[in-house]
Amino acid sequence: MSPDLALGTYRCQDIPRAVVHAVACGASWIDTAPNYHHGRAQTQLQSVLTGNPGLRVSTKVGFFTPDVATAAGEAGVLTSAEAASGHCLTDRYVAWQSRRNAAALGRTPDIVFIHNPERAARPHDAIISAFTALEVEARAERIGGYGVATWTGFAGAFTVADLLDIASRCGGPDHHLTAVQFPVSLVMLKPVAQALDGTGPLIEATAAGLDTFVSAPLHGGELPTIVTDELAQLIDPGTTPAEAALRVTASAPGVKHVILGSERAQHWEAARRVLALPPLPDKILHEVIDVLGA
């Protein structure tokens, strides 16, 4: 089955407009965070989510804006040292931020991701603290479930098996760990190479029944300008560099959701066409990996 599209709000300036185009092209998920769009992304989504009850939404805990740091400090859930770091995953802060997220969104988040736990001095301890709080939130039905959104965490800080073990310790066999999110692109090809060998986070998460959200498939919009015509034609003759790059990401075994951040209708229409195509043959993916040295 082909992966589906999700809207990521990290780089969006006009979030309601982006949602309109994303939904028109079949996106069923929106991914956001309390620090996106200068701290306004979640509140800008509230009316959109009210008008589209079928849309699912994931948000995050970890990073915060200065305004949120001030509010958290006044609430007694963030120390001055934690506020200065710009990132916190203590159980008291995670519970507070999760409830604040729900209020900003105007609905219960389907997933709350802990955001880049690899930033913590002790990532495993930070994950334990956050999972402990989020299990309480999930059992109280204030969130649907939780996950981990990471940029480099699977490069050595932790594995999917580690996350499952921690979730079981925090929540027992009926824990609410439901998803992982991490980048997969022509710049971040290691997960693709691992998946083709039957290893790595994509395969491990899928085997465990976790949802897989892949972020930055176009590496923040940079890939269309750096993918050569020769590489694009190797991947899929006749396609644009952006389409070729997206097709590699969508073809990786185990990918369920591809997160795009765009406000342009033509970008979403192109993405819909690409994701409707069958996966690239493993042979092509191996050739791309060999060319790029992943």
UniProtKB/TrEMBL annotation:
For this protein, the record's InterPro entries field holds: AKR2_Oxidoreductase, NAD(P)_OxRdtase_dom_sf, NADP_OxRdtase_dom
Domain named NADP-dependent oxidoreductase: which ranges?
A: 17-135
- Pfam families membership: Aldo_ket_red
What is this protein called in UniProt? NADP-dependent oxidoreductase domain-containing protein
Species the sequence originates in: Streptomyces ipomoeae 91-03
